[in-house]
Amino acid sequence: MTFRLDETDRKILIELQRDAGRSLEEIARAVGSSKTPVWNRIRKLREAGIIGQQTVLLDAEKLGFEATFFVLIRTSEHEAEWQRRFLAALRARPEVMEAHRLAGDIDYILKVRVRNARAYDAFYQALISEVRIYNVTALLSMEEIKNTVALPL
């Protein structure tokens, strides 16, 4: 069953993506409604799974995580057991901010956030000690140009 979003739902979602920490009153004012209808819509959006876990965005650099690496992984292993171990290893590593399985020449891409290159090397050594990987290419991000979790509603 699909959930049909109307314009008010979209406005609410846009406001929540901007800052979900604002009061219900502020969000209602921004979308041109009152608190109770907005609260009911938010509840329905949560029940439908459109609004998931709420969290806080932290400033990684201010907390000492100054290096972002994009890690390209090729594997010669495609068995279910290897994949199970590999995915478990990724999920267990807090440095892995994102992981994607790809179509094409590269099998996986990871976004890894660490304090510095030495911390990346420790991550890399730990990962290859847990699972066999055919080829790894690490790309250091020199500058973050844009970073958002907001969907273009």
UniProtKB/TrEMBL annotation:
Q: Name one Pfam family in it.
A: AsnC_trans_reg
In Swiss-Prot or TrEMBL terms, this protein is called Transcriptional regulator, AsnC family
Regions annotated as coiled coil: none
Q: Give me any GO biological process, just one.
A: regulation of DNA-templated transcription
Give the matching InterPro entries.
ArsR-like_HTH, AsnC-type_HTH_dom, Dimeric_a/b-barrel, Tscrpt_reg_AsnC-like, Tscrpt_reg_AsnC/Lrp_C, Tscrpt_reg_HTH_AsnC-type_CS, WH-like_DNA-bd_sf, WH_DNA-bd_sf
User: Where in this chain does the record put each HTH asnC-type domain?
Assistant: 5-66
Q: Which GO terms describe its molecular function?
A: sequence-specific DNA binding
